[in-house]
Each structure stands twice: as structure tokens, then as C-alpha cells.
Amino acid sequence: MAPRLPLLCSLALLIFSTPMSRAAEPRWWKGNLHTHSLWSDGDDYPDMIADWYKERGYHFLAISDHNLLPDAERWSPIAARRTGDAAFAKYLARFGAPWVESREGAKGREVRLRRLDEYAPRFDEAGRFLLIPAEEITARVHVNAINLRELILPYTGADQKTSEGVVATLQRVLNTLWDQRQRTGVPMFAHVNHPNFQWAVTAEELAQLDHSRFFEVYNGHPTVHNEGDAAHASTDKIWDVVLTLRLGVLHRDVVYGIGNDDSHQYHEEDPTKGAQPGRGWVVVRAAELSASALVEAMERGDFYASSGVTLSELQTGADGISLTIAAEPGVQYTTEFIGTRKGAPLDGEPVLDEKGQTLRATRRYSEQVGAILATTHGPTARYTFKGDELYVRARVLSSKPKLHSAIPHEVERAWIQPVRGPK
User: Fold this and answer.
1) Which of 181, 170, 175, 156 is nearest to 215 (CA)?
2) Same domain for 123 and 234
């Protein structure tokens, strides 16, 4: 039988004219990776906190309570918190019974805290919002574990007031999470929290760590000393020292900077008081809103941290960094490109106290370490590598005061991840 040429031609036309399926285009997702609830030392219910972030346009959230995973039966006495009555009234008004479960206990009325596996399905929404398992592993030094599957207990077998003890403690936690990742096959990572809280971690200690790619360059808690003081480097300067030592001396990977809330208080009448939500976040570029996609994007450095500034475009690569700010009317923007050039002196001097004794603090380095290599004013900025940089990162400063800041004279900023210079 002769072939039916018109039919064959029609089939061929259909096959070759049908567009092939393509992977989704990457887009930006806003999220917070450091949050506390009544499961530990926060003052609100975890489902109320998830509701707060979702309703304000965040795409993902990790509630990272201290040294636990919210997977057990737990009842919280209302009277245990100063704001307990207000929190319970809001909770009951928002969700009502039977979702809100309460009973009379030994310390008065108490409320059952919902487990993550109970409240996550209520808030998770494809392409809109995602809750990610997390834990803040807390000794004197604090580490957040993101997307973990098993509880990690803090290591207390070392003196965390010595450099050797800090490194040993952090490394034990990082190794444990790495082993869990390798064993389970689940993408997860750790970030070292607020190094200047209680002046717990120095740049030199951070630089030594294995399986360590992230730390908090910005934390919204008012007592963590992002800006340092006369004896202690700011977290921005700590970042530059870490990058310089890792790339120029230790031949290790770059470390990325994260912005987070570290929120604890949700009922303060004065929005400048306490550790409240909405102060710091990360914006991640990924093809989909899933924990694995977000983790993998952050491990590529495909994100920025912010305390208010939003970018509309960002490109980083072997030739440099370019960005465009989603500018607000009447606001001025300055972009600083920061880095250390090859050949810069890398020997720091110890910091001494008033008695001439050496403090356990980040050493003082040449101004060539973390120098401002270029400055641009306006909504667009670009830096092209000259060829002698160990790395370059960018920091955007606006003239707009930081909303609800607990720090005097704080302005909105953004931090763009470092790019290694040409080899």
C-alpha cells in the first residue's frame, strides 16, 4: 500500500512545530533562615509566625529553634511569657478551635504547639511559600542547620572561650551536618550565626573551617553587634578577612554572607524594640521554590542579602559584577566594590586591651584587606576585573533609613556575594 503522504507530512509538521519542554526560567525568591518561636525562646506560635511571613510576601522561611526539631508533643504555658495572653488571644482569633488546642495544666492554661509536619501543609503552596526544616545548634557559638533531617546536639567538649575550642566546636557541628547530608542525600547546609554576639567568633577562626560556606553578615537582632566596636571588627570586615585568608593563604573556597532576622519578639508595641521580624533576609535566584533548588543556588552564590535594598538585575561572572537597583523615588544609592588585591600584606596585628594584653578578637590588617576598589553612585553599577584581585564583592548603601531599626542611624543595604578574581 502506498504511504499516505499527506498524513505523514501532517505528523511531521506537528512533531517539529511543537515546542520542546524547557526548564523553568530562574527567578528571585525572598526568605528568612533564622527565626524563633515558642518552641524555644520566641514569643509566638510557629504557625502564627509562618502566617506573618507568608502574608508579607516572603517565599520561604526556616523556623530555627534552639537545639531541637519541632517533632514532639509540647504544651506551652500561657503565663510563661510576658506577652502570653496577647499571643494566645491573637492565635485564637486567627485560627480558632479546633486548630488551637488548650487545656488546664500545672502552671495554668497551656496551649499545644503544632509540630512542623502539622502546620507546614497549611502554609506550603507551590510557587508561593515554603517552610524549610531548621535548627539553631546552640552552645556559646551558634550555627544554623538548614533543611536537616535529624537533630544535631551542640558540642560542649571544648572551651569555647579559646580559639582552639571555638574551632573545635564549630568544626564538630559542621562535620556532623556534612555527614548527615552525605548519608541521606538531602541537600542541606550550615551557616555560622552572628559572630560578634558575645564576641564569640573571630575571622581567623571562621577562615579555618571545613564544610563552611556561609555566615551571617547581617542579623536583625539588636544585641549582635554587626558594626563591631573599638576592639572588634564589624561583620563586613570579618567577611573580608575571612575571604582574604581563605583565598590568599589557605587556598579554600569563598564564604558567602547571609542576611537574617533572628526574630524572637512578635508583640512589642514599639517596632524598634527587641528582635522583631522583617529586618534582614536573603533573595535567592532558583528555577523553582523547593528546598533543594534554594540550597543548590545558595551554594553557587546565586543570591544576595538585604536589609531593605532590592535589586532588579544582578550578574556575576569571570569578568566581574554588574547590578541594577530597583530604585525608589527620592532615594540615593551608592555601590561599593570591595576586595583584596594579590600581594596585599596579610599579616595582622593583635588587638590589645587597656592593660596591653592580647584580646581574642579579629586581628587588625592593612587597609588593603577589604579595600574599596571602586564606588558608583546611582541605580546601576558595574565592576570589571583588572586581573589582580583575590575576590570582589559589592555592598549597596541607600540614603533611606532602615525601617523599624533598633540601631541608631541605620540605613537600608544589600550585600552581593564575592566572586573570585582571575587566576
Assistant:
1) 170
2) yes
Which residue matches cell numbers 575571604?
A: 243
Could you list the residue range(s) of the whole structural domain that residue 93 is in? 76-112
Q: Which of 255, 155, 202, 173 is nearest to 361 (CA)?
A: 202
Same domain as 232, residue 102 = no
Sole residue written with cell 571545613: 210
Answer whether residue 10 is part of any domain: no
Cβ atoms of residues 345 and 241 within 8 Å? no
Task: Say if pTM beats, i.e. exceeds, 0.90.
Answer: yes
pLDDT digits (tens, 9 = 90+) for 33-58: 999 999 999 999 999 999 999 999 99
Indicate if 99 and 220 belong to the same structural domain: no
Please name the residue ranges forming H helices in 1-45. Answer: 5-17
For 222, the 3-state DSSP assignment is coil
Asked if residues 194 and 142 have their Cβ atoms less than 8 Å apart, the reply is yes
Residues 6+ apart with CB under 8 A from 158: 164, 165, 166, 168, 169
C-alpha dihedral, 90 to 95 to 97 to 101, nearest 10°: -70
C-alpha cell at 244: 582574604
Instruction: Say which CATH number the domain at 136 has.
Output: 3.20.20.140
Q: What is the C-alpha to C-alpha distance for residues 341 and 391, in angstroms, rounded to an integer?
A: 8
Taking only the tens place, the pLDDT of each residue in 210-263 is: 999 999 999 999 999 999 999 999 999 999 999 999 999 999 999 999 999 999
> For the chain, what is the domain count?
2
